[in-house]
Amino acid sequence: MTTDCSGNFDRYRKQTLFSGIGEAGQKQLQQARVAIVGCGALGSVLAETLARAGVGFLRIIDRDFVDLSNLQRQHLFDEDDVHAHLPKAIAAQKKLQRINSDITIESHVEDLHASNIEQLLASCTLIMDGTDNFETRFLLNDYALESNTPWISGGVIAARGQVFIVVPNQTACLRCILQEEPPQTETCDTAGVIGPAVNVIASLQATRALQWIASAGQLIDQRMTIVDLWEGSFQQIDLSSLSDNESCPACSQNERLWLRGERTSQSTILCGRNAVQISPSLGKSIDLKQQQQLWNTIGSTKLNPFLLWFQPTDQPEIELHLFQDRRAIIKGTEDLNTAKTLYTRYIGS
Q1: Strand 151-157 relative to strand 126-129: parallel, antiparallel, unpaired?
Q2: Below-70 pLDDT ranges, the chain
Q3: Within the chain, which residue ranges are assigned CATH 3.40.50.720?
Q4: What is the set of active-site residues?
Q5: What does the alpha-carbon distance between residue 194 and residue 30 come to, in Å, rounded to a whole number?
Q6: 267-346 architecture in CATH?
Q7: CATH entry 3.90.170.10 includes domain 5-242
Q8: Spatial contact of 107 and 93, defined as CB atoms under 8 Å apart
Q9: How far apart are CA 349 and CA 331, in angstroms?
Q10: Residue 286 in contact with residue 68, Cβ under 8 Å?
Q11: Cβ distance 322 to 291 under 8 Å?
């Protein structure tokens, strides 16, 4: 439910006393429509911070469910969410509605890709990056440039991370900085990640969002902020010289490889989860209740309104989480071929 911001200034009184926001900025926050793509470590902090700040509309998009390993750094979730196998987007929405009932919160349990990005991000005026992979970030960059929608990028690994904002036609975009997806040299599986680093990077992202919204798009920080919390270092890199990058294939040549679906994969290793996501051909769906009846004869199952959990009796180290669109997250392996074999064995081709 969304109500008139002017009647609820007591909630935001300390925030409106800050000159950078004030009552005018609070009204801008009330009218903002923000999409948060990914509601894991960064995304859950972003969602809570922006909900408490009074952003009037939040759309949370996440493909994953709450796992015990998430609780070390993802503040919105608890052990009850783990036991219920709740999708992160649903668990976040429930928590946030109890935090601020005056704003509108939408949740979408979906994997963002070229075929659904326009539908999922439609009408949003700002996009927040809570993802953990470059493929989705390059897709967000393509969509942002095509739709003239600003987005705020963030990434964190170990105790370090970086933040920068992309405003189409005004700042450097992701491909001005990186023309191609970089090779993945470190992941949270190999380098780990600590909660304080997540909180700092997400807070920097949220601050950029508050600046952008409260100033009605007039305040743009064209610096990339790089933080190493363990070393205690803080660095700012001015990206303004890249904003007129004529060699950028996205800004200058309107190349949209990810938005056109030319750079995509149907299987993804989930960072820090010992799990693989398998995404079959689009347009198919599955009857989860019917699938549960089949799986009950060969293992343990648990069904909620969003997904079906399955643990095979003969492979208790494996867990499958099946969604209605036939997408599955297979926990217990990081080998893509093994995951595809398990998918075919238990779900079909």
Answers
A1: parallel
A2: 1-7, 184-185, 189, 266-267, 272, 281-283, 349
A3: 5-242
A4: 188
A5: 32
A6: 2-Layer Sandwich (3.30)
A7: no
A8: yes
A9: 19
A10: no
A11: yes
| 165, β-bridge pairs | 152
The residue count of the chain comes to 349
Token pair, residue 96, equals 């946030």
Contacts of residue 333, defined as CB under 8 A and 6 or more positions apart, other chains included, come to 274, 275, 276, 318, 339, 342
Q: Are 282 and 110 in contact (CB under 8 A)?
A: no
Q: Which alpha helices (DSSP H) does 19-163 contain, by range?
A: 22-31, 41-53, 79-83, 88-99, 117-121, 134-147
Q: pLDDT tens across 68-107, in order? A: 999 999 989 999 999 999 999 999 999 999 999 999 999 9
What pTM was computed for the model?
Answer: 0.90
Taking each helix axis from N to C end, the angle separating 195-214 and 41-53, rounded to the nearest 10 degrees, works out to: 40
**CA–CA distance, 41 with 272 (Å, rounded to integer):** 11
Contact assessment for residue 38 and residue 61, using Cβ atoms and an 8 Å cutoff: yes
Residue ranges, comma separated, of all CATH 3.30.310.10 domains in the chain are: 267-346
